[in-house]
Amino acid sequence: MEGNGGIFEKWFHLKENKTDVKTEVMAGVTTFMTMAYILAVNPSVLSAAGMDSGSVFTATALAALVATLLMAAFSNYPFVLAPGMGLNAYFAYTVVLQMGYTWEMALAAVFIEGLIFIVLSLTNVREAIFNSIPMNLKHAVSVGIGLFIAFIGLQNAKIVVDGATLVSVYSFKGALGDGTFNSVGITVLLALIGILITAILVVKNVKGNILWGILATWVLGMICQAIGLYVPNPELGMFSVFPDFSSGFGIKSMAPTFMHLDFSRVLSLDFLVIMFAFLFVDLFDTLGTLIGVASKADMLDKDGKLPKIKGALMSDAIGTSVGAVFGTSTTTTFVESAAGVSEGGRTGLTAVTAAALFGLSLFLSPIFLAIPSFATAPALIVVGFLMLTSITKIDFVDYTEAIPAYICIIAMPFMYSISEGIAMGVISYVVINLVTGKFKEKKISTLMYVLAVLFVLKYILI
Q: Membrane spanning segments where (predicted)?
């Protein structure tokens, strides 16, 4: 083991990053467990566009594996990548179903977007954007992401549901009345118990607290299903929490989507608009995630810069184009990386561990497809709390800093988008400082003005 430790030390500089092999591996497993849902959700979303779900499953796992290994190799950061939520929904429901493009054309748009990102990453454009964002806004992004992923967790667990007030709390009384308690209601209860279990483990400072919280909630779900308290109901989206090994352990073929790119409408105006939309959302979702998770892990230097950001952005860009070739929507840095960082993950060993598990999932798809959302939801909610703590770093004395930070924070959960939160934060920061005359003393970078104008134009034109 000493030999292995030496190899890991040489590759990942564990001592320099104040971490060890056990912490990194635990962090990698935790991150993987909190984002393993993408292996089930991505095939489901993209199959709505007419894509083969088995092929998309394999493409999703392989895209995550390749992009995450690149992240470890290029930057030695603990960030994990996979085909992103939101971007896959835009791909399937807007580009294909609403605008009438084939999924092959949509994959071509994703592929070209990735190539443009590679160029932007090589020419420092993305790095310059990251560095131009003021420190208070960077902390605000971390807080906003915390609220956003907590909201996603509450929704995944069905604790928060659609209602007359836009959102409302799940009604146990209603579930007992309409007979859905044994399918949906019990999982809401299990998720609430899971939040308390995870919170207690965090307070007790148990190593791997978030991962243990996921596993404990899942085991409780299995017990409930075994004794008949939980009854799966596929019509309501409630499935068995026991892995289904009836189809065996084979890797599902990627042939139905592999290299199915259609460039026939590449020069049309519609195609450019779609590609720009993919580009925009991916750019600012990725930057937002890097800002939020890196600031939470204290990886930013004294000037608010991320030292090896070029490698991180390059892995994201290459991952997007490679993923499109495999047959999946945009690959991006996952906000769930915060779960591993909260566990102490600080180096590429965390990423390599998660990547290995994505590779393993190709053979063990029944197990990973069985992890229920009510088991991962408590992890997202508790990680949301841990990211929210960055709010103490925001300067609330200077209102020209605090108000844009506040706007950025509330926009992310309420507009259901990391990139919208950044857009609102940047626009409000520039306008407020410009109109109040504070821009001179703050030396706001030219790029911030350019970004503000671009964001405004985006709302007018797209």
A: 21-41, 53-72, 105-125, 137-161, 181-203, 210-231, 271-293, 313-335, 371-391, 403-432, 444-461
Quick: pLDDT tens for 100-116: 888 999 999 999 999 99
Q: Per-residue pLDDT tens for 280-302?
A: 778 877 888 888 888 877 888 88
- Predicted TM-score (pTM) of this structure: 0.75
Residue ranges per structural domain of the chain: 11-241+253-461
Closest CA to 316 of 146, 112, 68, 7: 68
Token pair recorded at residue 58 = 């394999």
Residue type, 251: I
Nearest-10 crossing angle of helices 21-35, 209-226: 50
